[in-house]
Design brief:
Elements (H helix, E strand, L loop, with lengths): L7 E6 L4 H16 L3 E6 L37 H15 L5 H10 L3 E5 H7 L12 E3 L1 H8 L3 E4 L1
Parallel strand pairs: 1-2, 1-5, 2-3, 3-4
Length: 156
C-alpha cells in the first residue's frame, strides 16, 4: 500500500527570529515547487516576517538559543546578534536562499496564501496597512482551519 501524495500544506510561523521564520518559508516554497497548495499563517512574533517595518530586519536570536551552542551570556554582548545574523545570511546566500522580504514575495508569486492571525493582530494593535502587500488578509484561527482542511499542518 502506498501513501497518498500530499496535496495541501498549511504552515504556521510563530517566531520572529531568522531561525524561526526561515524554516516555514522554506517549507512553503518547497511545497509550491512540488505543485502542492500552500498557505502560510503568521502569528505572534512570526508577524514580523510580513510587517512592513520589520520584515527586512529579522535577526538570529542570540540569547538563550540552544542551537547556537554558546553560553546564554554571550548573546547579551552588544553586536553579537548582528554578527550571527550576518554570518547566517552569508551562508544562506551561498545556498541561494533569499532574504526574508524576497522570499516572502517569491512565495506569494507562486500562488501561496499568506495570512495574518486576527487574534495576534488585535493583541499587537496592528491593521492590514501594517503588512506587506503580499498578505492576502487577516483571518481567525477558525478561518485558518477552513483553509487547512484536507491538508497537512506544519508548525515551525
Amino acid at each position: 500500500m502506498t501513501a497518498e501524495p500530499i496535496q495541501k500544506v498549511s504552515v504556521i510561523i510563530s517566531k520572529g527570529s531568522l531561525e524561526g521564520v526561515m524554516p516555514g518559508l522554506i517549507m512553503a516554497n518547497g511545497a509550491r515547487a512540488e505543485g502542492i497548495e500552500a498557505n502560510v499563517f503568521f502569528t505572534f512574533f512570526g508577524l514580523d516576517a510580513i510587517t512592513k517595518r520589520r520584515w527586512d530586519r529579522i535577526k538570529v536570536a542570540a540569547v538563550g538559543n540552544p542551537g547556537l551552542h554558546l553560553p546564554t551570556w554571550v548573546g547579551t554582548i552588544p553586536g553579537v546578534s548582528a554578527l550571527l545574523t550576518r554570518a547566517m545570511q552569508r551562508r544562506m546566500e551561498k545556498l541561494d536562499i533569499p532574504p526574508v522580504p524576497e522570499f516572502v514575495e517569491m512565495i506569494a508569486d507562486t500562488g501561496a496564501g499568506l495570512w495574518a492571525c486576527q487574534a495576534t493582530v488585535d493583541m499587537f494593535g496592528l491593521t492590514k496597512d501594517d503588512f506587506v502587500e503580499q498578505v492576502q488578509g487577516i483571518i481567525t484561527v477558525g478561518e485558518f482551519y477552513e483553509l487547512a482542511a484536507g491538508g497537512q499542518i506544519i508548525f515551525t
